[in-house]
Structure to design on (298 residues):
């Protein structure tokens, strides 16, 4: 896959997901640090 | 029941889908969808509530990882017969186990971040189950009683990291955002038979995976029993059960 690609997936009775592939940038890392998306925050 | 977590990343609140499909805030009942909420006592506590009387969640919702503070994310490789057939791989005699770092987990619709040096980023739709009670050396017959519920997990992988950077698979599996999970947990009593579910994945509108859990080599009950011989699973642990056909190693002409 490459940036801009979109995945849609699902399983019967369990719902659906959709994700877009986006470049990992310094801004993304800064957002991640701010949001504390880590094993202790999810 | 369908249980989820919603809100900004790192500040999610618990939620439940009511009988009409409306999203309701559950924070007056439980502090989070965590190990206690997923225990038999916790699920009974939630089930006793009339979800339709809880506050409705309005506006666009961001779903978080449906379990708070996941202790461990255990994965199974090469667990579908069609998957083995397309790679001409022998059917495994025992389940192949590996781990993803739990820091890879993210919400069902969160972006997947593309590392700058990635060359082989890849996808895999998988049925995952969430542990509700501690289990160590449990029998296959009792295994399903330890499962709180089921969810969808996209086992995103960077194959070059996984197979061509030395060592085990962890490098290719654990990048933040490589495990979109959810949108919700469907409790085991509501889902019914986990071995008769259709799975699918579209990439840019084209169907690239289409399978059924009836073609698993090792069932969820067998997997949980098997894994519990080697590690003590804890409430909140997530086990993801492998992916059907269109396996990436075949697409990239790689070998494990």
């Amino acid at each position: 896959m490459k940036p801009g690609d979109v995945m849609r997936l699902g399983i019967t009775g369990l719902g659906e997901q959709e994700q877009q592939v986006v470049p990992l940038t310094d801004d993304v890392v800064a957002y991640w640090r701010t949001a504390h998306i880590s094993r202790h925050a999810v | 029941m369908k249980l989820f977590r919603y809100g900004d990343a790192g500040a999610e609140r618990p939620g439940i889908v009511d009988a009409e499909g409306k999203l309701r805030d559950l924070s007056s009942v439980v502090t989070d969808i965590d190990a206690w909420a997923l225990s038999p006592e916790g699920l009974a506590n939630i089930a006793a509530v009339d979800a339709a009387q809880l506050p409705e969640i309005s506006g666009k919702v961001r779903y978080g990882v449906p379990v708070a503070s996941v202790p461990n994310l255990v994965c199974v490789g090469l667990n579908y017969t069609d998957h083995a057939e397309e790679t001409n791989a022998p059917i495994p005699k025992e389940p192949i186990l590996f781990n993803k770092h739990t820091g890879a987990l993210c919400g069902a619709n969160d972006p997947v971040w593309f590392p700058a040096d990635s060359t082989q980023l890849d996808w895999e739709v998988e049925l995952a189950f969430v542990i509700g009670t501690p289990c160590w050396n449990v029998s296959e017959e009792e295994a399903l009683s330890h499962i709180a519920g089921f969810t969808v997990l996209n086992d995103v992988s960077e194959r070059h990291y996984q197979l061509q950077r030395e060592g085990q698979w962890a490098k290719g599996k654990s990048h933040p955002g490589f495990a979109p999970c959810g949108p919700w947990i469907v409790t085991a009593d509501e889902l019914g038979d986990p071995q008769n579910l259709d799975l699918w994945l579209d990439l840019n509108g084209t169907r690239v995976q289409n399978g059924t859990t009836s073609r698993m080599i090792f069932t969820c009950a067998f997997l949980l029993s098997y894994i519990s011989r080697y590690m003590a699973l804890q409430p909140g642990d997530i086990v993801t059960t492998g992916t059907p056909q269109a396996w990436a190693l075949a697409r990239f002409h790689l070998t494990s």
Observations:
- The longest strand of chain B covers residues 147-154.
- The CA atoms of residues 39 and 132 of chain B lie 5 Å apart.
- The helical segments of chain B are 40-47, 81-87, 140-143, 159-164, 170-173, 188-191, 220-230, 248-251.
- The mean pLDDT of chain B is 93.
